[in-house]
Amino acid sequence: MVKNNLQERKQRELEQRRKDILKVVRKLIIRDGAREVTMRKVAEESGFSNTVVYTLFGDKASMITNAIDEDIIRMHKLVQAAIASGEGALARVRLACRAYVENGLRHPDQYFLVFMERRPAAPVETSTLVFGDPERDPYALVRGLAAELVREGFVAADDTQLHVITQLLWEGIHGMTSLRVSGGDDPWIERIDAMAHLELLVDVLLLGIVHRFAGPKAKAALAQLAPAAEG
Q1: Beta bridge partners of residue 189, listed in sequence order
Q2: What is the pLDDT of residue 191?
Q3: Taking the C-alpha atoms of 168, 171, 174 and 176 in order, what is their torsion angle to the nearest 10 degrees?
Q4: ∠ at Cα 97 (93, 98), nearest 5°?
Q5: 21: closest CA among 48, 40, 60?
Q6: Contact at 8 Å (CB) between 199 and 97?
Q7: Is the dihedral of CA 217, 219, 220, 225 positive or negative?
Q8: In whole angstroms, what is the distance from residue 218 CA to residue 156 CA?
Q9: CA-derived radius of gyration, the chain
Q10: d(CA 87, CA 191)
């Protein structure tokens, strides 16, 4: 019993050290950018030794990845909750896109940190996300939505094409979000309301995807997305 208590206390201490260090990493990224973050600088700012930092995270890329995982997990949960009410693949894709963009516009600093700050790539196993699991991996979740388009007959795609569709969807909504996050109220750009803009963007993305990767029920999808497309 005593041994177990000591192990539990040690684990709690390690977890607290991780949290303290990751707070410092986030602060440094926001202040100086990810490229300026070093293991030594993190150790100095956090008050822990280089050995502790290296033992807990292994390398810079893994440390930075862990520092932003919390934001990604929060966004992922929002998207999951949003698509739960969707009836059919087309509706679920639209709900996912809406939740993603709304979250980015509501939390621009976090969005910039996660998706617009250049950082080194880390091995997937070092992340607190679970690679390939739709319940713990945002990319896998969106790929699952693309697969629903196939199952419902709107799209015909093999595994490689599913990845392409997933990336087209993500790139489209990221483009809108990043421009609004970075440009703000740029007087050079005459923008419509963000949500009206988003609805148009998702229409265009889905129309293009269904047309390019047409499945047996593509015509029905096109009619649902844009009735004028029937003519």
Answers
A1: none
A2: 84
A3: -80
A4: 115
A5: 48
A6: no
A7: positive
A8: 9
A9: 21
A10: 30
10 Å Cβ neighbour count for 39?
16
Q: How large a percentage of the chain has pLDDT more than 90?
A: 61
3-state secondary structure of 214: strand
Domain residue spans of the chain: 1-58, 69-230
pTM: 0.84
Please provide the CATH number assigned to the domain covering 1-58: 1.10.10
Torsion of the alpha carbons at 185, 191, 195 and 196, rounded to the nearest 10:
170
Yes or no: say if 39 and 70 are a contact pair by the CB < 8 Å rule. Answer: no
The mean per-residue pLDDT over the stretch 175-203 comes to 89
Neighbours of 13 (CB within 10 A): 10
130-155 pLDDT tens trace = 999 999 999 999 999 999 999 999 99
Predicted local distance difference test score (pLDDT) of residue 3: 61
Q: Identify the residue with better confidence: 114 or 159.
A: 159
pLDDT category at 2 given cuts 50, 70, 90 is low
Cβ contacts of 204 within 8 Å, gap of 6 or more? 172
Cα separation of 219 and 212, whole Å? 12
Residue 47 carries which DSSP code? T
CATH superfamily of 69-230: Tetracycline Repressor, domain 2 (1.10.357.10)
